[in-house]
Design a protein that fits this description.
about 425 residues, alpha/beta, Molybdenum Cofactor Biosythetic Enzyme, Chain A, Molybdopterin biosynthesis moea protein, domain 2, Molybdopterin biosynthesis moeA protein, domain 3, 4 domains, six-stranded mixed sheet, 7 helices, about 20% helix, elongated, binds adenosine monophosphate, binds magnesium ion
């Protein structure tokens, strides 16, 4: 059976990112939060825009003050006051200084700023009580960034630091990738919506909500197509509709070997190709991945119906695929982090096993994994609540004793 890492490689290879020309939109700066930049940004501005002072003090000529001290202060004539936002009108001559505030433009002729704390002022004269270093407290023009060169690369997520850079560069309508549309359908004759009174044998379609929230939190747009009966004609119509509407399709259920598991044959009857039938992962073995056209879009994921299996396969395989699809340039795969397990962890060793739970950052700055209490059955969705990470036991490993290290991936922020 296909290993988890081989399945991941196949999936990421199949994902075609959104098109840099066609699949983009212009958004205002606030709406750009969490979106992915579709083209690189170059600024026409230098940063800083001009030489400016990093202190409140006096702009001086270094030559005039290089030998001064408390006993032998340099005495300079103050010829100008330069607040931030004001352009100096004069050029400093020998023996002159300008009062200057943080962020203000350095006047012509000055090459150094002396901070206020080592000066003494008497009317329009300033006594410099300590020799500065040459160019001290000057932020030179273009020392942070040169006009015309790349300011932000394509394919990064825009959050507060990036959006403040865009604002400073006066790039008010950045071009971002549109959000990919992810269709979600739940298959199963036993399923009903959460507001329907349950008849014997029925269960609520919780996967529809689980997947919609996961899709939204991954930066994509969920298209919730509801419950589809295990009936080949209806199911085929629903899948055909989903693949026509979406960049990626997620169905849950119907991918195992039961009598009502039709997903693979429907993909094939719609001209699709199955790339993955099953993966050596627990929970989540019956995972189907298919494509329908040469362009490989949309990618089809037939996730297992069991809730924990649907979650685990989403976190492990679908989320990286959505990240790549969205135009994110890198960092698609989940990051593996070392944590100390607070409890013994057990696995059957035949498949890569994922155990859900909570990871805490302790006072020493190291991670501790607390497995969810109760059954780690693929059908148990109740103890998934509060999950923020998955511990991974590789094939061949049956036991991780309490206190030993285990690799985890984060699924949400850790406490
Ligand atoms: P299946 O993969 O279709 O055989 O589904 C396996 C089991 O997962 C079913 O017996 C249900 O108990 C459960 N299941 C399937 N679909 C859903 C769903 N949409 N929401 C919650 N549980 C589901
Ligand atoms: Mg089913």
């Amino acid at each position: 059976m296909l290993s988890v890492s081989d399945a991941e490689a196949i999936i990421l290879n199949l994902v075609q990112p959104l098109d840099q020309q066609q699949d983009t939109e212009l958004v205002d700066l606030f709406a750009a939060t969490g979106r992915i930049l579709a083209s690189p940004i170059a600024s026409q501005l230098d940063f800083p825009h001009w030489d400016n002072s990093s202190m409140d003090g006096y702009a001086v000529r270094y030559q005039d003050v290089q030998d001064c001290s408390t006993e032998n202060p340099a005495v300079l004539e103050i010829v100008e006051e330069i607040p931030a936002g004001y352009q100096s009108q004069s050029t400093l001559q020998k023996g002159q200084a300008a009062r200057i505030m943080t962020g203000a433009m350095i006047p012509e002729g000055a090459d150094t700023v002396v901070m206020q704390e080592v000066t003494h002022r008497e009317e329009n004269r300033v006594f410099i009580l300590a020799a500065p270093k040459p160019q001290e407290f000057i932020r030179p023009r273009a020392s942070y960034h040169q006009a015309g060169t790349q300011l932000l690369p394509q394919g990064i997520i825009l959050n507060a630091p990036e959006i403040s850079v865009l604002a400073a560069a006066q790039c008010t309508l950045p071009r971002v990738f549109r959000k990919p549309i992810v269709a979600i359908l739940s298959t199963g004759n036993e399923l009903v919506t959460p507001d329907t009174p349950l008849q014997p044998g029925q269960i609520v379609d919780s996967n529809q909500y689980a997947l919609a929230v996961l899709v939204k939190q991954s930066g994509a747009e969920p298209l919730m197509l509801g419950i589809i009966k295990d009936e080949p004609v209806t199911l085929k119509q629903a899948v055909a509709h989903a693949i026509a509407k979406a960049d990626l399709v997620l169905s849950s259920g119907g991918v195992s070997v039961g009598d009502y598991d039709y997903i693979e044959q429907i993909i094939e009857s719609l001209g699709g190709k199955i790339h993955i039938h099953a993966v050596a992962i627990k929970p989540g073995k019956p995972l189907t991945v298919g494509t329908f056209s040469r362009s490989l879009s949309p990618l089809y994921f037939g996730l297992p119906g069991n809730p924990a299996a649907a979650f685990v396969t989403f976190w492990r395989f679908v989320q990286p695929a959505i990240k790549k699809l969205s135009g994110l340039a890198e960092g698609w795969e989940p990051k593996l982090i070392k944590a100390r397990s607070r409890h013994e962890l057990r696995a059957d060793s035949k498949r890569e096993t994922y155990l859900w739970g909570q990871t805490f950052l302790n006072r020493e700055g190291t991670y501790e994994f607390q497995p969810a209490s109760g059954s780690h059955s693929s059908g148990n969705l109740i103890n998934l609540a509060q999950t923020n990470s998955l511990a991974i036991l590789p094939i061949g490993q049956t036991l991780i004793p309490a206190g030993e290290h285990v690799l985890i991936i984060h699924t949400a922020h850790c406490k």
